[in-house]
Amino acid sequence: MSESKEKKIENKEFTEECNTVLMAVSDALYAIGGKWKLMIIIAMARGNKRFTEIQRQVTGISARVLSSELKELEQNGFILKKVAVGYPVSIEYELLPYSQTLEEVVGAMTKWGIQHREKIRNESKKQ
């Protein structure tokens, strides 16, 4: 009976740990998930601050989607929208220090992406 209780507790602990991991990944995907958010941050980190510069750098993104993604990145504390009053009105986007917390994530994804591309190339050569 004691062994049975231990297994139940072990399973419960695993479930709680699993839920913690799932919740954390869900939160991360909410903040930076999707096709464009990290690409926008990377483009901005390379010096692109204006809407058209970002759109030109992030190939394939529409103006509507870029606008929406920039708003979400601003809401999550990664960027700041700076509006300079005048004629014409000038709008620039600035990365906030919090965006630097993604450096490790981007580095790991870059490494994995290169590795994955190489794997796919090698497999297609074998066929």
UniProtKB/TrEMBL annotation:
<keyword id="KW-0238">DNA-binding</keyword>
<protein>
    <submittedName>
        <fullName>Winged helix-turn-helix transcriptional regulator</fullName>
    </submittedName>
</protein>
<dbReference type="InterPro" id="IPR036390">
    <property type="entry name" value="WH_DNA-bd_sf"/>
</dbReference>
<dbReference type="InterPro" id="IPR002577">
    <property type="entry name" value="HTH_HxlR"/>
</dbReference>
<dbReference type="InterPro" id="IPR036388">
    <property type="entry name" value="WH-like_DNA-bd_sf"/>
</dbReference>
<keyword id="KW-0805">Transcription regulation</keyword>
<feature type="domain" description="HTH hxlR-type">
    <location>
        <begin position="18"/>
        <end position="121"/>
    </location>
</feature>
<dbReference type="Pfam" id="PF01638">
    <property type="entry name" value="HxlR"/>
</dbReference>
<keyword id="KW-0804">Transcription</keyword>
